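To assess whether ligand presence alters the predicted conformation, the chain was also submitted together with LWBT4IAB. Input:
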Amino acid sequence: MSPTQRPVRGGDFEVKFADIGGVTLHFDHRPTAGARHLVFINSLGTDFRIWNAVTEALGDDVSTLVYDKRGHGLSDLGATPCSIEDHVDDLSGLIDHLGIVDVVLCGLSVGGLVAQGFYARRPEMVSGMVLCDTAHRIGTRESWNARIATIEKNGIGAIADAVMKAWFTPAFHERRASELAGCRNMLSRQSVAGYAATCVALREADYTAAAASIAVPTLCVAGDRDGSTPPALVRSLADLIPGSRFEIIEGAGHIPCVEQPAALVSLLRDFMAALPSGNR
Ligand SMILES: O=C(O)CC1=CCC(=O)O1
Protein backbone atom coordinates (compact mmCIF):
# COMPACT_ATOMS: atom_id res chain seq x y z
CA MET A 1 0.00 0.00 0.00
CA SER A 2 1.34 3.47 -0.82
CA PRO A 3 1.64 5.86 2.12
CA THR A 4 -1.21 7.98 0.76
CA GLN A 5 -3.77 5.18 0.59
CA ARG A 6 -5.83 4.41 3.67
CA PRO A 7 -8.10 1.38 3.77
CA VAL A 8 -11.66 2.40 4.57
CA ARG A 9 -12.93 0.92 7.82
CA GLY A 10 -15.70 -1.55 7.05
CA GLY A 11 -14.87 -1.24 3.35
CA ASP A 12 -11.66 -2.57 1.83
CA PHE A 13 -10.42 -3.58 5.26
CA GLU A 14 -7.23 -5.55 5.03
CA VAL A 15 -6.25 -8.15 7.56
CA LYS A 16 -2.51 -7.81 7.96
CA PHE A 17 -0.02 -10.15 9.52
CA ALA A 18 3.76 -10.08 9.81
CA ASP A 19 6.27 -12.64 10.97
CA ILE A 20 8.42 -10.82 13.50
CA GLY A 21 11.24 -13.02 14.75
CA GLY A 22 9.11 -16.15 14.29
CA VAL A 23 6.03 -14.68 16.00
CA THR A 24 3.07 -13.86 13.75
CA LEU A 25 1.63 -10.48 14.73
CA HIS A 26 -1.77 -9.18 13.63
CA PHE A 27 -1.79 -5.45 12.97
CA ASP A 28 -3.60 -2.60 11.23
CA HIS A 29 -1.41 0.17 9.82
CA ARG A 30 -3.05 3.29 8.39
CA PRO A 31 -0.40 5.64 7.11
CA THR A 32 -1.10 9.19 5.96
CA ALA A 33 1.67 10.90 3.99
CA GLY A 34 3.54 13.41 6.15
CA ALA A 35 1.58 12.64 9.30
CA ARG A 36 3.34 11.47 12.43
CA HIS A 37 2.84 7.88 13.58
CA LEU A 38 0.84 7.19 16.71
CA VAL A 39 1.40 3.59 17.79
CA PHE A 40 -1.10 2.05 20.20
CA ILE A 41 -0.09 -0.76 22.55
CA ASN A 42 -2.79 -2.84 24.22
CA SER A 43 -3.60 -3.82 27.77
CA LEU A 44 -3.94 -7.32 29.21
CA GLY A 45 -6.89 -9.32 27.89
CA THR A 46 -7.71 -7.02 24.98
CA ASP A 47 -7.17 -6.96 21.23
CA PHE A 48 -6.61 -3.96 19.01
CA ARG A 49 -10.32 -3.30 18.46
CA ILE A 50 -10.34 -1.34 21.72
CA TRP A 51 -8.73 1.53 19.76
CA ASN A 52 -11.35 1.60 16.97
CA ALA A 53 -13.23 4.67 18.19
CA VAL A 54 -9.96 6.52 18.80
CA THR A 55 -8.32 5.81 15.44
CA GLU A 56 -11.63 6.48 13.67
CA ALA A 57 -11.88 9.91 15.31
CA LEU A 58 -8.25 10.76 14.56
CA GLY A 59 -8.91 10.00 10.90
CA ASP A 60 -6.26 11.13 8.44
CA ASP A 61 -4.66 13.64 10.78
CA VAL A 62 -2.19 11.07 12.07
CA SER A 63 -0.76 7.79 10.83
CA THR A 64 -1.85 4.98 13.12
CA LEU A 65 -0.58 1.53 13.97
CA VAL A 66 -2.48 -0.89 16.19
CA TYR A 67 -1.54 -4.52 16.77
CA ASP A 68 -2.42 -7.54 18.88
CA LYS A 69 0.43 -8.14 21.28
CA ARG A 70 1.78 -11.68 21.48
CA GLY A 71 -0.61 -14.14 23.12
CA HIS A 72 -3.66 -11.97 22.34
CA GLY A 73 -6.15 -11.61 19.51
CA LEU A 74 -4.88 -13.17 16.30
CA SER A 75 -1.18 -12.91 17.18
CA ASP A 76 0.97 -15.87 18.13
CA LEU A 77 2.07 -16.44 21.69
CA GLY A 78 5.66 -17.43 20.89
CA ALA A 79 7.92 -19.07 23.44
CA THR A 80 7.04 -18.93 27.11
CA PRO A 81 7.77 -17.59 29.61
CA CYS A 82 7.92 -14.16 28.01
CA SER A 83 8.86 -10.77 29.35
CA ILE A 84 8.07 -7.16 28.61
CA GLU A 85 11.37 -7.15 26.71
CA ASP A 86 9.95 -9.83 24.37
CA HIS A 87 6.98 -7.52 23.77
CA VAL A 88 9.47 -4.74 23.05
CA ASP A 89 11.19 -7.04 20.51
CA ASP A 90 7.83 -7.52 18.78
CA LEU A 91 6.98 -3.84 18.67
CA SER A 92 10.47 -2.90 17.56
CA GLY A 93 10.45 -5.54 14.80
CA LEU A 94 6.98 -4.54 13.60
CA ILE A 95 7.90 -0.85 13.43
CA ASP A 96 11.05 -1.70 11.43
CA HIS A 97 9.07 -4.07 9.19
CA LEU A 98 6.75 -1.20 8.30
CA GLY A 99 9.63 1.23 7.72
CA ILE A 100 8.48 3.64 10.44
CA VAL A 101 11.29 5.80 11.81
CA ASP A 102 9.62 8.15 14.28
CA VAL A 103 6.82 7.25 16.67
CA VAL A 104 4.62 8.61 19.38
CA LEU A 105 3.70 5.69 21.63
CA CYS A 106 0.34 5.38 23.34
CA GLY A 107 0.51 2.44 25.74
CA LEU A 108 -2.41 1.27 27.85
CA SER A 109 -1.63 -0.56 31.11
CA VAL A 110 0.81 -3.39 30.24
CA GLY A 111 1.11 -1.54 26.91
CA GLY A 112 2.48 1.39 28.90
CA LEU A 113 5.21 -0.87 30.30
CA VAL A 114 6.02 -1.96 26.73
CA ALA A 115 6.21 1.72 25.73
CA GLN A 116 8.61 2.43 28.63
CA GLY A 117 10.71 -0.60 27.61
CA PHE A 118 10.75 0.49 23.96
CA TYR A 119 11.83 4.00 24.93
CA ALA A 120 14.63 2.61 27.12
CA ARG A 121 15.91 0.58 24.19
CA ARG A 122 15.35 2.91 21.23
CA PRO A 123 14.93 6.46 22.56
CA GLU A 124 15.98 8.01 19.24
CA MET A 125 12.82 6.60 17.60
CA VAL A 126 10.38 8.12 20.08
CA SER A 127 9.08 11.70 19.84
CA GLY A 128 6.63 11.43 22.71
CA MET A 129 4.68 9.05 24.91
CA VAL A 130 1.14 8.88 26.21
CA LEU A 131 1.13 6.48 29.14
CA CYS A 132 -2.47 5.60 29.80
CA ASP A 133 -3.73 3.87 32.94
CA THR A 134 -0.33 2.38 33.59
CA ALA A 135 2.63 2.62 35.92
CA HIS A 136 6.32 1.76 36.28
CA ARG A 137 5.26 -1.37 38.18
CA ILE A 138 1.75 -2.86 38.18
CA GLY A 139 0.37 -5.26 40.81
CA THR A 140 2.38 -7.52 43.09
CA ARG A 141 4.03 -10.91 42.68
CA GLU A 142 1.27 -12.39 44.88
CA SER A 143 -1.60 -10.80 42.93
CA TRP A 144 -0.27 -12.00 39.56
CA ASN A 145 0.44 -15.51 40.88
CA ALA A 146 -3.08 -15.71 42.31
CA ARG A 147 -4.59 -14.56 39.02
CA ILE A 148 -2.56 -17.07 37.02
CA ALA A 149 -3.58 -19.90 39.36
CA THR A 150 -7.27 -18.95 39.06
CA ILE A 151 -7.38 -18.80 35.28
CA GLU A 152 -5.32 -21.96 34.84
CA LYS A 153 -7.78 -23.79 37.08
CA ASN A 154 -11.09 -22.20 36.12
CA GLY A 155 -10.56 -20.26 32.88
CA ILE A 156 -10.56 -16.51 32.20
CA GLY A 157 -14.35 -16.39 32.65
CA ALA A 158 -13.75 -16.89 36.38
CA ILE A 159 -12.17 -13.44 36.69
CA ALA A 160 -14.37 -11.64 34.16
CA ASP A 161 -16.74 -9.97 36.66
CA ALA A 162 -13.87 -8.52 38.69
CA VAL A 163 -12.00 -7.38 35.58
CA MET A 164 -15.10 -5.68 34.12
CA LYS A 165 -15.44 -3.73 37.41
CA ALA A 166 -11.87 -2.49 37.03
CA TRP A 167 -12.21 -1.72 33.31
CA PHE A 168 -15.47 0.24 33.38
CA THR A 169 -17.39 2.60 35.65
CA PRO A 170 -20.75 1.70 37.22
CA ALA A 171 -22.39 4.05 34.69
CA PHE A 172 -20.94 2.02 31.80
CA HIS A 173 -22.21 -1.18 33.44
CA GLU A 174 -25.69 0.34 33.78
CA ARG A 175 -26.07 2.12 30.44
CA ARG A 176 -23.86 0.32 27.92
CA ALA A 177 -24.81 -3.30 28.49
CA SER A 178 -24.08 -4.59 24.98
CA GLU A 179 -20.63 -2.99 24.86
CA LEU A 180 -19.94 -4.44 28.30
CA ALA A 181 -21.00 -7.89 27.07
CA GLY A 182 -18.80 -7.54 23.98
CA CYS A 183 -15.77 -6.50 26.04
CA ARG A 184 -16.40 -9.36 28.41
CA ASN A 185 -16.41 -11.72 25.42
CA MET A 186 -13.16 -10.20 24.17
CA LEU A 187 -11.54 -10.86 27.56
CA SER A 188 -12.97 -14.36 28.04
CA ARG A 189 -11.96 -15.46 24.53
CA GLN A 190 -8.27 -14.67 24.92
CA SER A 191 -6.24 -17.83 25.33
CA VAL A 192 -5.42 -18.84 28.90
CA ALA A 193 -1.79 -19.43 27.85
CA GLY A 194 -1.46 -15.98 26.27
CA TYR A 195 -3.14 -14.23 29.18
CA ALA A 196 -1.09 -16.10 31.78
CA ALA A 197 2.16 -15.39 29.91
CA THR A 198 1.36 -11.68 29.98
CA CYS A 199 0.63 -11.89 33.73
CA VAL A 200 4.11 -13.39 34.17
CA ALA A 201 5.62 -10.53 32.13
CA LEU A 202 3.73 -8.03 34.31
CA ARG A 203 4.83 -9.78 37.51
CA GLU A 204 8.49 -9.45 36.59
CA ALA A 205 8.41 -5.91 35.17
CA ASP A 206 9.79 -2.92 37.04
CA TYR A 207 10.62 0.24 35.09
CA THR A 208 11.01 2.45 38.17
CA ALA A 209 14.70 3.12 37.55
CA ALA A 210 14.19 3.77 33.82
CA ALA A 211 11.51 6.42 34.31
CA ALA A 212 13.94 9.16 35.37
CA SER A 213 15.75 8.83 32.02
CA ILE A 214 12.67 9.57 29.91
CA ALA A 215 13.53 12.75 28.05
CA VAL A 216 10.67 13.17 25.57
CA PRO A 217 7.33 14.90 26.16
CA THR A 218 5.23 12.46 28.16
CA LEU A 219 1.59 12.61 29.15
CA CYS A 220 0.34 10.26 31.86
CA VAL A 221 -3.42 9.72 31.78
CA ALA A 222 -5.75 7.98 34.23
CA GLY A 223 -9.45 7.24 34.25
CA ASP A 224 -10.86 8.74 37.44
CA ARG A 225 -12.51 5.38 38.32
CA ASP A 226 -9.69 3.09 37.22
CA GLY A 227 -9.95 0.03 39.48
CA SER A 228 -6.65 -1.46 38.35
CA THR A 229 -4.11 1.36 38.06
CA PRO A 230 -5.84 4.11 40.08
CA PRO A 231 -5.05 7.80 39.45
CA ALA A 232 -2.67 7.96 42.44
CA LEU A 233 -0.54 5.17 40.95
CA VAL A 234 -0.48 6.76 37.49
CA ARG A 235 0.41 10.08 39.14
CA SER A 236 3.34 8.34 40.89
CA LEU A 237 4.64 7.35 37.44
CA ALA A 238 4.27 10.93 36.22
CA ASP A 239 6.21 12.11 39.28
CA LEU A 240 9.15 9.93 38.21
CA ILE A 241 9.29 11.27 34.63
CA PRO A 242 10.98 14.64 34.31
CA GLY A 243 8.66 17.32 32.89
CA SER A 244 5.74 14.95 32.32
CA ARG A 245 2.08 15.98 32.49
CA PHE A 246 -0.67 14.18 34.34
CA GLU A 247 -4.34 14.27 33.29
CA ILE A 248 -7.47 12.59 34.59
CA ILE A 249 -10.29 11.49 32.31
CA GLU A 250 -13.61 11.84 34.09
CA GLY A 251 -16.12 9.01 33.85
CA ALA A 252 -13.64 6.34 32.84
CA GLY A 253 -12.27 3.16 34.38
CA HIS A 254 -9.16 1.33 33.18
CA ILE A 255 -10.01 1.47 29.46
CA PRO A 256 -10.77 5.11 28.55
CA CYS A 257 -10.29 4.38 24.81
CA VAL A 258 -13.55 2.39 24.99
CA GLU A 259 -15.45 4.27 27.69
CA GLN A 260 -14.47 7.88 26.91
CA PRO A 261 -12.77 7.85 23.49
CA ALA A 262 -13.57 11.49 22.72
CA ALA A 263 -11.80 12.68 25.87
CA LEU A 264 -8.74 10.58 25.05
CA VAL A 265 -8.72 11.78 21.44
CA SER A 266 -8.83 15.38 22.60
CA LEU A 267 -5.79 14.79 24.85
CA LEU A 268 -3.98 12.95 22.05
CA ARG A 269 -4.66 15.73 19.52
CA ASP A 270 -3.39 18.43 21.89
CA PHE A 271 -0.35 16.34 22.77
CA MET A 272 0.53 15.64 19.12
CA ALA A 273 0.01 19.27 18.12
CA ALA A 274 2.43 20.48 20.80
CA LEU A 275 5.27 18.14 19.76
CA PRO A 276 8.22 19.59 17.89
CA SER A 277 8.29 18.34 14.29
CA GLY A 278 10.54 15.32 13.76
CA ASN A 279 11.27 12.67 11.15
CA ARG A 280 8.04 11.28 9.82
O1 LIG B 1 -7.33 -6.36 33.26
C1 LIG B 1 -6.81 -5.93 34.29
O2 LIG B 1 -6.81 -6.54 35.34
C2 LIG B 1 -6.12 -4.62 34.28
C3 LIG B 1 -4.76 -4.70 33.77
C4 LIG B 1 -3.61 -4.84 34.48
C5 LIG B 1 -2.49 -4.85 33.57
C6 LIG B 1 -3.17 -4.66 32.28
O3 LIG B 1 -2.64 -4.56 31.19
O4 LIG B 1 -4.50 -4.60 32.46
